[in-house]
Design goal:
It contains 13 helices and 28 strands. By secondary structure, the protein is of the alpha+beta class.
Length: 646
Amino acid sequence: MKLKEIFRSTGADVSNVDDENRTMDLTFSSEAPVDQYFGREVLSHSPGAADLSTLKNGAPLLWNHDKNDIRGVVESAHIGNDKRGHATVRFSKSAKGEEAFQDAKDKIIRGVSVGYRIKSMKQSGGDKANPEFTIDKWHPTEISLAPVPADNSVGIGRAAEGGEQDVAVELINEPAPSTTRKDPPMTTENVAAQAVIDTARSEAAGAERTRIATITALGEKFGKADLARKLVEGGASLDAARSQFLEALGAQERAIGDVTGAAGYIDVSAKEFKAYSLIRALNAAITKDWSKAGFELECSAEIQKRAGRDGTNGFFLPMNLPGDTSVANARRMLNAERATSATAYGATINAGQGGGNLVATNLLAGSFIEVLRAKARVMSLGARMLSGLVGNVAIPRQDTATASYWVSPEGTDVTEAEAVFDLITMTPHTIGARSQITRQMLMQSTPDIEMLVRDDLAAVLGLGIDLAAISGTGAGGQPTGILNRAGIGSVAMGVNGGPITIDALIALETSLMTQNVDENDLNYLTNAKQVGALKTLKDASGRYLWTQYPGVFGQRTPTPGEINGYPVARSNQVPSNLTKGTGTNLSAAIFANWSELFIGEWGVLEILPNPYGAGFNSGSVDIRALQSVDINLRHVASFAAITDAT
């Protein structure tokens, strides 16, 4: 059945009004039967029936389903034990948002309507003339305020952008009349029929042999012989077996991210870890006297043993220090900005340049003035961190899907077109960061400098990893980033580059949609120059196409807004110095499903202090940190870029 977007109204049932934060709770759906244009409808509120991903990711709060009249945003949504949909909404500070908020509080607006798409439904009663359907899979996309709750038999089934979609419908079938088997007399026709039956049996036996051989081969290829045996004995079809292998391999892939037992993650109590001091370890490494840093030395030795590493002139830093420390926290630091650990407010740290600012009696260490850094963004957009890796890693991937064919003429064999599996690999690439810190600060600083030193190393490494994910060259020890990966989609602005246009953005989006890319984590990433350019785009009527994004995107990354319905993240890590033809200083813009970006982390972080470095004359100590990572894309088709925007 082809169905359009559906709307249904309900009472607002407003509660928990928060005037300060401009939020309130409301109900938006229930299992009450509603007459729709295709029959009587019951929305299932059983676990898993409603896909709330859009509502949870900041769906708009509209006025009468008008997508150009946004009054707020959906903060959260869930299905309650009362079999109703509940949401928390936040109203905008615009005049219209303020008006709607006040009217809802005063119960002048009493209706709420939800727009949703039906994914599948089953006939649960009625007859051909008046069927009743239970919607067992549905996807709400927006919540609207309804000043006058609509009659559910009127205005239902209005088309959303994109028109109709196919919906799987399971109908009630009339039971077939029972029959009593009678063996037909043996005739020439029956003999011919028996021959056909024998041929079919032979073909079935051949298909069974193929099934067993294929499942067994898959088990050997992916090291899942026990699973293959169970699937063969259980009579699983080839398609079902492939799904089971992918599920098992996916669980294996997810386990890669389990850092339990990884070399850099040592098992000590929280009390012991609280006593760990990076500054004490640095002092010991500089003086070669570990008598006052026995616990830190013990941690380093344990990591060295577990990682099978040779000795170091420095020390190995645990990756699971409490309080968001170390470069393991580069995951968080990929979306944070920290300053260099300077006693003075300069780029380097020298003994005579104001070190007393951090050792003063009334020091406000929490007010340390940080250096301005570029913003790391790829992790906050949804990239997946695979932690605690050991050795080279191979992740299984289904490259192509099984194809289906129509049989013609009747009786001919179905064309065989099996799914193809391959592997994506990840190997360690080492990234390093250097900083300077004075010996005086090491000896005299407040406890807060401990966190400053750790966070600075994490920020520098995090930005380096973020930059590699975007534009790593694949040469000189770097991983290969998105912009240098063969096979990603691309849209050109001109022979020598050109200004970005809405048509180019649509082409960029289309290049992904035609590849069946998952739409859940699609977002733009570009630099400040291109965000400025996007904000100037207008439609034929002179109206700006840029939409100011209300709130915090994904509750993680501040985004300036959205264009053509997709959020835009901004970071000057995205290059603005590209060239093409005679064009220079060209910028990139990436459109992608960011959950398809993998960042592998090998969990051993090596710290080496050097008292004889560039800051020797001023008493400064160089600190070098080394960490091994790699970047890869699960599917290159999930990424597309413009690289020649003026």
